[in-house]
Amino acid sequence: MKWKKVGLPIVFIIIFGLGIWGFRIDKIRQQEEDIGVSLDNELLEYFISQYPDNKVLKCGYEDVNDDGRKDLVVIYYKAKRSNGMVVILDKGDKYEITEEVPAPIENQTIEFKDIDDTGPIEFIVSGSKDGRFGYAIFRVEGLESINLFGEGMEDCC
């Protein structure tokens, strides 16, 4: 009789704990899908260590400087109605961060395309602000993200 009294609460606690654990795993997976990379990505962890007060909104993971190592494009929240973008470059023995450029406020996307069929690869950032859409095509040169071509970025950043 005592085991039934003790066993029922223990079973309830185990089932409740498993439910919370499952919910947390789903939330982590959704967050990874939303930002575009795994939360344990080393370059993302480095960004967070350098920008601890900025929320990551979107990431893209590809070799943007043609050195054989994947780099991380990060769009992040700076302040109300102000987002920034940097690229974390994997230099093998260290990481470097490009200069910041303005980024779209809403609906950010990052795509990688080899537009001119020569290295390095370009990346396209698009998004909106108050219903106005914009995009820009960037290439990393040194520690700068060079805007090669774009339209409407001033209206969405």
| Residue-averaged pLDDT | 84
Structural class: alpha+beta
CA distance, first residue to last residue: 67 Å
Number of strands: 9
Unreliable residue stretches: none
Count every helix, treating DSSP H or I runs of 4 or more residues as helices.
3
What is the total domain count? 2
Describe it for me?
With 157 residues, the protein is α+β, with helices and mostly antiparallel strands. It folds into two domains: 1-35; 42-156, no CATH class. The protein is built from three helices and nine strands. It has helices at residues 2-35, 42-50, 153-156; strands spanning 56-62, 71-79, 82-90, 95-97, 101-103, 106-113, 122-129, 132-141, 144-151. The strands form two sheets. Strands 1, 2, 3, 4 and 5 form a five-stranded antiparallel sheet that branches. The radius of gyration is 21 Å and the shape is globular. 26% of the residues are buried. The model has no long low-confidence stretch (mean pLDDT 84).
Identify the notable features of this structure and list them briefly.
2 domains, four-stranded antiparallel beta sheet, alpha+beta, 157 residues
Summary, kept brief:
The chain has about 160 residues and is of the alpha+beta class. The protein contains three helices and nine strands. It folds into two domains: about 1-35; about 40-155, no CATH class.
